[in-house]
Every structure is written in structure tokens, then in C-alpha cells.
Amino acid sequence: MVNRIYNSLIEKKRHGKKSFAVLIDPDKVNDGKMQSLIDLAVTAKVDYFLAGGSLVISNYLDECVQYIKRSCNIPVVLFPGSPSQVSKYADALLYLSLISGRNPELLIGQHVISAPVVKNSGLEIMSTGYIVIDGGAPTTVSYISGAAPLPSDKDEIAMCTAMAGEMLGMKIIYMDSGSGAKRPITESMIEKVSQSISVPLIIGGGITDPEKAYLDCKAGADVIVVGNAIEKDESLIAEMAAAVHSVLVRV
Superfamily assignment of 4-245 in CATH? Predict the structure, then answer.
């Protein structure tokens, strides 16, 4: 399998380039809205689309991914909340293990169930250590997982969790404060984690303005993911992308 998406992440990280990803929840879009999002994303030079959510109840995932693939060349990466959220039409899949929680189902149990389907999907599979940080509001992922998020002010716990994930073989660390978080992840936590790992670091949840996206990248985030804020105001795509792409870290 050619690891095209992962290699692009590694190459960008090596050269200090930051990436911006737009998260699309299939439950919240339709063909009409998709075209508007895609047009804005192409103009803004968005790096990736993430597709999925903690609770996808519609049957629009396959159609959503295919619509993107027909309309542009931006890679589509699945961000699944359950084994059912697998679409062979995407480019890659974040194979998430909730390493911040203690629910064995989301550490390995669901992966055992989904392994044959995932293996046969033809997707590029990227093992991802998923760390949920307390964003000051209950989130769907915390409710479904039955796992408490990490405290937002415990940088060392996040750092050690990320280190453990990398040493266990995770190719990516993804820290998320959840959709609609009142508090985004702090720059100090991002910096602490970034300095302790060598794999790409993705940050999402509660990022509502370009300045925060910029500061997170300066602190060490390699990829910024925004979904909820863009659902409310699509025009943020251009500003967010410009802020993220303006950061170039000398390595």
C-alpha cells in the first residue's frame, strides 16, 4: 500500500509546513451545501477534508465522499466514530484508538470488529492515538465512549499519553476538545506534547477564529481541524487556511 497521505504529512512536518483540514459531518450537509464548501476550500487551498463524526445517523457518508472526489483533488480522510463509518471511496482512514480513555472497546475492541472491513477497503490506514481534552462542555464522543476527557490544565498527562501512543506505534497523535467546545486546547499543552513526540500532531475542537489556529500552529500543531465554526460561517475557511499556511517553522 502506498502511504500517500501519511507521507505528505511527514514531508510537510519535515519542512515545517502546516496543514488545514475542514471536518465535514455527513449528518449536517447535503449536495447543495457541499458544493459551496468545496468551492471555498479549493480557493483557500485547504489541504484535507475529514469526513465523519461521533454519531453519524444518515446514509450520506458514501455520497458525501464521492461528491468531494468528483468535485476537487483535495484528499478525503475518514474520521470515523464507529466501525460503520468506512467508505471505500475515501483516500485514507484515521484508525482511531482512544488512548486518553480507559474503555477497552475504543482502545481495541471496535478495531477487532472492524479489522476485516478496514483491511479489505483499499484505504490508506493511519493508526492514530486519539486524545480527548476537556473543552468545558459535554461532548458526543465522551458520552458514547463512557470515558472522561483529560483535564485541560494537565499538560504533563497529555504529554505522557501522547508519548505512550507514539511508542506503542501510533503514526499520528490527534488531540481534540470536541465539537462545540467552550475551551479549545491551550497552546501550552500543544507545545508540551509537540516537543515530546516526532509523529504528526493534529489539533481540533473549539477553534473558532484564525488567530487561535495560527497560535496553535506556532505552538507545534502540524494540522488544524475545524468543523463546527465553519458549519456556522463558511467564510471562515479562507481566513483559517491563510492563518495556518502563514506559519512556517524552521526545522
Answer: FMN-linked oxidoreductases (3.20.20.390)
